[in-house]
Batch of 2 targets.
Target 1
Amino acid sequence: MNKTQQLHDLGQSLWLDNITREILDNGTLSGYIDNLSVTGLTSNPTIFDEAIGGTNAYDAGILEKAEAGLSGEALFVELALEDLRRAADLFRPIFDKTDRVDGWVSMEVSPLLAADTAGSIAAAKQIHAQAARPNLFVKIPGTPEGIPAIEEAIFSGVPVNVTLLFSREHYLAAAEAYLRGIERRLAAGLDPKIESVASLFVSRWDKAVADKVPAELRNHLGIAIGQRTYRAYCDLLASDRWQKLAKQGAHPQRLLLASTGTKDPNASDTLYVEALAAPETVDTMPEKTLRAFADHGIVGTGMAKDGGDCENTLKRFADAGIDVDALAKQLQIEGAQSFVKSWKELLDRIADKTNTLANAGGA
């Protein structure tokens, strides 16, 4: 049995943190599904910027949509959804087999809306309707302004991938929004089975403190935060509040471990995947990490439901001068700013390509 299948059998879903037209066209994504137990994928503005800028695979689509009168965000969203619809269709058998728990793809609302609650709600509804696929998550950031948008989207029946979570407290805020949305649906006589995942970003913690802590603490903070958050996740699933909802047919908002590619070249390239394996969770990983784990990853017993030694580890970081609450806030702000930067670069790239292709066609 291969390593990715072992991880899948442990109960963790493996999702690819990438999408390009090339891996759809050449069968790579189908191969990952068939051979490496990949059961979903995620996307973000940076991924699409690199995909569109790195090849000419999108040129015909850009020109066609521009000639039809689309530009800017409207052009990009439809261009991205073309890829994501194809990927969603590949995952649809998994989605059906697992009763909607697995087999998902994700599309981001505009990062420019991170501080705009009403705008995020409207965009989430629009993307969900435009995608026309039941297994497409709309990604909404778990920022203070995003939390009420998440609740409203869930209440409206829009499946949500809550992104940009960096701590247990961020996760609990996202979980509370999900629970409120489901409870409101039940009170209104609506189906409570609206799926969601809560995406905890891991490796950015260690990158942020790499030069601020002793060598023996490097590459341990992200894992400790993951363990602490997993404990909170397990506690919530065992709570009376959740059990009441589950008995009425609701599915849990699964914890998703994101940003699990190792950024330190001196650390194991499977570090986070191995440390954060756990049942009833998702790990979304870059292609490089997926292949590395398939080649030489080790599947252990999984994270401890009580968080293991995470609090002792976090105390060592506190003793070294790291304020994890302040850093979590900083990382979320920086993450939102990074997505805005990528989004603007992406729209600039599409505008430049549109002009170049139009001029070439008219020459």
Note: The mean pLDDT is 95.
Target 2
Amino acid sequence: MAPDLHVHSLAELAATVWRDQGVRVVKGTELDPNTAQTEGMSRAAAINRARAGAEKIWAGTVTIRANAKTGAHHHGPVESVIYVVRGRARMRWGEKLEYTAEAGPGDFIYVPPYVPHQEINASRDQPLDCVLVRSGQEPVVVNLDIAPAEPPEEVKWIDAIHRG
């Protein structure tokens, strides 16, 4: 009988661990605005170490006010994915921010590590709402002193699947 009780106790322990350390749901009304902010943008954390126990990713929302843009910067070794929920995002990147692409609702933007870039709300009168996911917990931002090139070169995503 003792082995059955021991197995039963382990099963109860496992259930408690899964219950307390398993899936997390963070409601849209529970986002934490106490995170790194940029002028013209409002970020709120959904998934991070403090809120969900995440070790390798950070996820949250960002709202960029109409016609706002960041300065040139990069995020060090951190990868970023931006999902556009509402509005029009314009990204500029390169040594002189010489490349540009735009994304709208339903589009994803991938920003590799160390890529100099600038995020812009392409609308003069509507906010831009996005979901942001980063490959790290720290809000790494390295500001760069880059004078933007004019006019930027538009870059289309062309690969084996997207032929232009």
Note: DSSP finds two helices and eleven strands in the chain.
